[in-house]
Amino acid sequence: MNPPVGCPYHKISEEFKPFELSNPFPFYQKARAEKPVFFNQELGYYVVTRFEDVKSVFANWKVFTSENAQSPLKEISPKAKALMETAGMVGLSGLSGRIPPDHTRIRRIVSMAFSMSRFKKLEPRIRELAIEMIEGFIHKGETNIIKDLAYDLPAFVIFMLLGVPKEEVQQVKSWAESRLLLTWGDLSEDDQLIHAENMIKYWNYCQHLVALRKDNPTDDLPGDLVRYQTEGYEISDREIAAMCYSALFAGHETTTSLLGNGIRELLTFRESWEAICANPSLIPGAVDEILRFSPSIVSWRRKAVEDAEIGGVPIPKGSNILLVMGSGNRDEAVFPEGESFDIERSNANQHLSFGAGIHFCLGSPLAKLEAKVVLEELSKRIPDLRLKPNQKFEFAHNTSFRAPVALDVQWQNQSVK
After folding, report:
1. How far apart are alpha carbons 78 and 62 in whole angstroms?
2. Is residue 347 part of a domain?
3. Cα separation of 28 and 24, whole Å?
4. CB of 153 closer than 8 Å to CB of 374
5. Which residues 6+ apart lie within 8 Å of 193 measured at CB?
6. Which Pfam families does its entry note (predicted)?
């Protein structure tokens, strides 16, 4: 793809590796300094790296629409596209890809069910799960903590919220991974077809969740939304299923990443781990610093619906935009010594990791609650927790979702409490 005429193409675009997330932060720092808004030819996107520019685009939903937020980053092959269209998956979105007035209408209704009071009701069960899972490996002296804790716990929590039976968790989670790869990855045509088939199964499952609650009301998110529908609130079965489709993915994939990134950073910066072990009241601030320093989602997308400007750079109508929150979160204009990890940072909660504006993540309180509970129980029970030496961290090949695939840790059993 050739860059648009007059666009801010820069040599830094050639250095940008959009699907390589092992350590993108040195590049982000360089981009902020040299060319904070540039056109990337590989993606065909304008890339935005400074905090204020990212935040301003999120805030201006009328000019920078979210309609491409859930669109596949790479063009879907004709066979995979036809398969998904036949299954009714065209234009499917929960909230992140919608704009007012539909976004306003649906978000208001969903907010009634996705409330802090419902999240707080889950806290005792979250703690029970965390303790149960930690007790399952605590006497081994070592574990892959992604596999034995971070992978399953958020899934169990969000699936409790949505009324998914525990025995179906692994299947649904595998379908959600297909969604990640098909939407944000760089797949071959054959792989696209495999993942498209999984996404259809995932969508059919979500429609079934809604249908079940028509005859058998339940105390969970889809049950609440079906009840609001019967009370006269304007929300369709398809919209309820789309909310389940989005929540079942976002509600665990990103929290798994938050836990994996968080434990890794805390153990890498050992003094931070020791600090929360000695003083658990530091944990909420530590969670926000993890989200700032090593976010689960490093970038998100928007599209210009008219000629515009970002950071002094002209953006033609119809342009796709990649907002790099992982870069903005380290912008020293907002976060002094932004490349340093500091769990007592006073403004860590200003990070962009949950977005901003009308699409700010509804599930952010739940994600932070889960991380707080897990870190409380883990630091209390295994204060000697350490990274296993000489391990190489691998990250899924995509533009947006960043977390270690595995995280091997160890400890002395005599230190277990």
Report:
1. 31
2. yes
3. 6
4. yes
5. 77, 79, 80, 83
6. p450 (PF00067)
Local structure of residue 147 (DSSP, 8 states): I
Q: 320 forms bridges with which residues in the sheet?
A: 45, 303
At 309, which helix (H) or strand (E)?
strand 308-310
- DSSP output for 80-91: HHHHHHHTT-TT
Q: Distances from the Cα of 346 to the Cαs of 204, 262, 273, 285, 350, in angstroms? A: 45, 18, 18, 8, 9
- pLDDT tens-place string over residues 358-389: 888 888 999 999 999 999 999 999 999 999 99
DSSP strand pairing (300-304 vs 64-65): antiparallel
The Cα 222–Cα 245 span in angstroms is 11
CB 58 within 8 A of CB 356: yes
9: tokens are 């193409």
Give me the CATH number covering residue 409.
Answer: 1.10.630.10
Q: Is residue 251 part of a domain?
A: yes
Containing structural domain, residue 311: 11-415
pLDDT tens digit string along 67-113?
877 677 777 888 888 888 888 776 556 677 678 888 889 899 989 88
4 domain-assigned: no
State if pTM tops 0.85: yes
* Cis peptide bond prior to 295, omega within 30° of 0: no
Would residue 316 count as lying in a domain? yes
CA dihedral (232, 89, 295, 276) positive or negative:
positive
For CA atoms 147, 153, 158, 160, give the dihedral sign. Answer: positive
Cα–Cα distance between 22 and 398 in angstroms, integer? 11
d(CA 174, CA 198): 8
Q: How many domains does the chain have?
A: 1
> CA 217 to CA 231: how far, in whole Å?
13
